[in-house]
């Protein structure tokens, strides 16, 4: 009798634990939802004044102003650049907050998508005489076409941005059993081992001034990580201090 009472108490305790655990998960989900809503609302609100400013600046730049001195022109150039950076940041924040609502049931030809990214980024690569190489097998996966494009685009854009003049970027994609493996390899500056996890944090940059000079806002990899997460994938990075970085993404379907 004593044994069965102990058993009963254990079951009660376990049930109590399960209820508390579920409540905690619900609260966490609510907190995430509130944060997501806040980010989305803030980004929406910021977008309008920023685009009004951009239109005004474009209008100003499209007409000649012969009376302006060098200082004024320099100030206007800076304001335009910073406005562009802010707009980029706000757009990425908005994209991040809307990830969950995007449909992820499209059949994607990964090889064709990679080719598209490489064509779109060819002009950027040419600026530094970087060779872009696509090495993709005929591979399909199910997901969001627009998000997977964005993921590959951000990885290849970084591989170009943080590469040396005359370097190389290789994108590989293939299926191995249930795994779809995609990797982006560059011959660039590499990432210090102790910072390999931190680069996925929003606004984290190994070298802030270099990133800023290259037009970065520190949200590219945070978005990549979220895109991988909503597709139930994994992302890893290997880099050697002597240079060269490989980002590898695996989706299991
Ligand atoms: P950013 O807008 O600064 O490029 P990201 O979130 O895309 O922001 O990347 C975060 C940081 O990770 C970058 O500032 C850079 O320091 C580092 N990084 C990303 N990709 C690479 C790469 N391929 N090689 C070297 N460093 C990289």
From TrEMBL:
<keyword id="KW-0472">Membrane</keyword>
<keyword id="KW-0902">Two-component regulatory system</keyword>
<keyword id="KW-0808">Transferase</keyword>
<keyword id="KW-0418">Kinase</keyword>
<keyword id="KW-0597">Phosphoprotein</keyword>
<dbReference type="GO" id="GO:0016301">
    <property type="term" value="F:kinase activity"/>
</dbReference>
<protein>
    <recommendedName>
        <fullName>histidine kinase</fullName>
        <ecNumber>2.7.13.3</ecNumber>
    </recommendedName>
</protein>
<feature type="domain" description="Histidine kinase">
    <location>
        <begin position="41"/>
        <end position="253"/>
    </location>
</feature>
<keyword id="KW-1133">Transmembrane helix</keyword>
<keyword id="KW-0812">Transmembrane</keyword>
<feature type="domain" description="HAMP">
    <location>
        <begin position="1"/>
        <end position="33"/>
    </location>
</feature>
């Amino acid at each position: 009798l004593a044994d069965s009472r102990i058993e009963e108490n254990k079951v009660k305790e376990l049930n109590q634990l399960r209820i508390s655990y579920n409540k905690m998960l619900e609260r966490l989900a609510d907190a995430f939802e509130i944060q997501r809503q806040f980010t989305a609302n803030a980004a929406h609100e910021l977008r309008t004044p920023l685009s009004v400013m951009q239109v005004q600046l474009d209008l100003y730049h499209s007409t000649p102003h012969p009376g302006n001195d060098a200082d004024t022109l320099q100030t206007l150039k800076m304001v335009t650049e910073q406005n562009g950076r802010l707009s980029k940041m706000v757009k990425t924040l908005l994209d991040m907050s809307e990830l969950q609502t995007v449909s992820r049931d499209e059949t994607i030809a990964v090889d064709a998508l990679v080719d598209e990214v490489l064509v779109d980024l060819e002009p950027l690569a040419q600026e530094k005489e970087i060779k872009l190489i696509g090495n993709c097998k005929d591979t399909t996966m199910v997901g969001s076409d627009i998000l997977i494009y964005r993921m590959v685009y951000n990885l290849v854009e970084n591989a170009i941005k943080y590469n040396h003049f005359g370097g190389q970027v290789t994108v590989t994609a293939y299926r191995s059993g249930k795994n779809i493996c995609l990797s982006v390899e560059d011959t660039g500056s590499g990432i210090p081992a102790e910072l390999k996890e931190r680069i996925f944090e929003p606004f984290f940059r190994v070298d802030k001034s270099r990133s800023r000079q290259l037009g970065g806002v520190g949200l590219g990899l945070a978005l990549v990580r979220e895109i991988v997460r909503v597709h139930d994938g994994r992302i890893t990075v290997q880099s050697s201090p002597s240079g060269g970085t490989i980002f590898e993404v695996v989706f299991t379907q």
